[in-house]
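The protein record filed here:
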Amino acid sequence: MGKIVVTEFVSLDGVMEDPGGSESYKYGGWTFEIARGEEGDKFKLDEAFSSQALLLGRVTYEGFAAAWPSREGEFADKFNSMPKYVVSSTLEEPEWNNSTVLKGDVPVEVAKLKQEKDGEIVVHGSARLVQTLIEHDLVAEFRLMVFPLVLGSGKRLFGETSDKKPLRLVDSKTVGDGVAILIYEPAPEEANESNSG
């Protein structure tokens, strides 16, 4: 059975919009202003190699599909060769090799994908998709690379949910110039109940 892992670059105030600078956000490329260092680079490379598939929203997918096929190196080779699933009601013919469009009810399609695939199914970016996955308790792990800056506006990682979503920190470290890597998993229900009494 697959495991949905959400991995994001976020600012201290939770903004995750356009970290690479390929969209039209006014602070696009903000992650390049702060070094994540060799340890941060290794974290992202290790993550790529432990991924069995990518699950992406259409906007992120199109950005990746425009960038990765022309790149070289082990990271690009891994991204280009692994299976990719894009959630979209408008995309018909994905051009990036090894890509499949998921249409219809997103939580149902993602739950099916989890049944069909083993290992880590990793979601990068994809704000709307991530918020849907959070709402339906489909995320097994969050890997947040938190950059020490406040952007003040832009798409936020966490939107409104119909209920609270308790998480527990399972790992943390600081890399580069103060970039925090925080890894969270959903907190077990029993723990939540015992804390509330």
User: Anything to note?
Assistant: The helical segments are 37-50, 58-67, 74-81, 106-116, 127-135, 189-195. The first strand starts at residue 2 and ends at 11.
